[in-house]
Amino acid sequence: MKALVNGREAGSKEMGCALCGATWGNHHEEVEGERLFFCCDLCAAGFRRTVEEIKRRTGWDYIDEIQLVGNYHAGRTVTAISGGRSARFYVKFNEDAEIETFREE
Ligand SMILES: [Zn+2]
């Protein structure tokens, strides 16, 4: 799965955390068969929960690409792409990286 954060490719140590884009920290996690870089375990948990929620709502069994725009304070717009399909959501986390708000956009 490809991840874009605020318009830039992310998900590796060089490109930044797959959720917030930060390049500090060192946490890797496999999500949807892809080893992605996260700055910390909270970002990894938030990302994983977002992927799970998108799959639950859309019924898709895989996601090719996730585009995140926003930040922790404002929440994030998430565009998910699977094959030729796409869906847009808004997600906001609490300080434990649990989903506080999740809605279709
Ligand atoms: Zn992060």
Brief account:
The protein has 105 residues and is of the alpha+beta class.
Walk me through the structure.
The chain is α+β, with helices and mostly antiparallel strands. It has one domain. 17% of the residues lie in helices and 45% in strands. It contains one helix and eight strands; from the N terminus they run ββββαββββ. It has one helix at 41-58; strands at 2-5, 8-10, 27-31, 34-38, 65-71, 75-82, 85-93, 99-104. It has a six-stranded mixed sheet with strand order 2-1-5-6-7-8, with helices on one face. Strands 3-4 form a two-stranded antiparallel sheet. A hairpin with a 2-residue loop joins β3 and β4 (34-38). The protein is globular and about 35 Å long. It starts with a strand and ends with a strand. The relative contact order is 0.17. The chain binds zinc ion.
Q: Which ligands are bound?
A: zinc ion
* Number of helical stretches of at least 4 residues: 1
Average residue pLDDT: 96
Most strands sheet: 6 strands, mixed
Distance between the termini: 22 Å
Secondary-structure element string: EEEEHEEEE
Portion in beta strands: 35-45%
Q: Total strand count, please?
A: 8
Number of structural domains? 1
Widest sheet, order of strands? 2-1-5-6-7-8
Runs in which pLDDT lies below 50 for 5 or more consecutive residues are none
Shape: globular
Work out the helicity level.
10-25%
Estimated structural class? alpha+beta
